Amino acid sequence: MQLTDYIRTIPDFPKEGISYKDITPLLINPKACEFALSKLIEGLDGKQIDKVVGIESRGFLFGMLLAKALGVGFIPIRKPGKLPSKTFSQAYDLEYGSDTIEIHKDAIHQGEQILLHDDLLATGGTAAAACQLLNKLGGEIVQVNFIIELDFLGGRKLLPNNKVNSLIRY
């Protein structure tokens, strides 16, 4: 199965000059979804995972599927003001602006083995900020998973101390 068959490009979204990689066709197809999930798990090579962390919002989709398949808890990283308890926050830059993400202070315990997931690696700012939050909480990042990686934006360079697994690379 070719996962690229289930990704569509939307020109000039969310702003002019951006070619948005849309995973909606992948989500619509249960066989393609199951195949992608199996490839994400296969990439772990049997490593111990204590929790899966997903980045808002599309990182929640496969993040939850990964947590369920691995039999572990799921932790959301969200935009400011969306989490109800005490949080740590981290600001970052992305290809079309800047933003901040947050995680509950009690979400990760010292030494827990963490799988971080998001749908797309572009410039790497969001993933790097998430890694900083996880490190602040004492989590040990086993791997950072993505459905899609845009190689030409060099986001992997912001994750030099992490194993990165991307299913599709453009």
TrEMBL record:
A Gene Ontology molecular function term of the record: AMP binding
Domain of life from the UniProt record: Bacteria
Location (main, coarse): cytoplasm
GO CC term, one of those recorded: cytoplasm
SUPFAM superfamilies: PRTase-like
Pathway where it operates: Purine metabolism; AMP biosynthesis via salvage pathway; AMP from adenine: step 1/1
GO biological process: adenine salvage; AMP salvage; purine ribonucleoside salvage
Record's subcellular location: Cytoplasm
Enzyme Commission number(s): 2.4.2.7
Catalytic activity annotation: AMP + diphosphate = 5-phospho-alpha-D-ribose 1-diphosphate + adenine
Keywords: Cytoplasm, Glycosyltransferase, Purine salvage, Transferase
Signal peptide: none
Name of a matching Pfam family: Pribosyltran
InterPro entries hit by this protein: Ade_phspho_trans, PRTase-like, PRTase_dom, UPRTase/APRTase
Domain Phosphoribosyltransferase: 30-144
Job of this protein: Catalyzes a salvage reaction resulting in the formation of AMP, that is energically less costly than de novo synthesis.
UniProt record similarity statement: Belongs to the purine/pyrimidine phosphoribosyltransferase family.
Self-association state and partner proteins as the record states: Homodimer.
PANTHER family: ADENINE PHOSPHORIBOSYLTRANSFERASE
Protein name (Swiss-Prot/TrEMBL): Adenine phosphoribosyltransferase
Organism: Psychroflexus sediminis
Gene field: apt
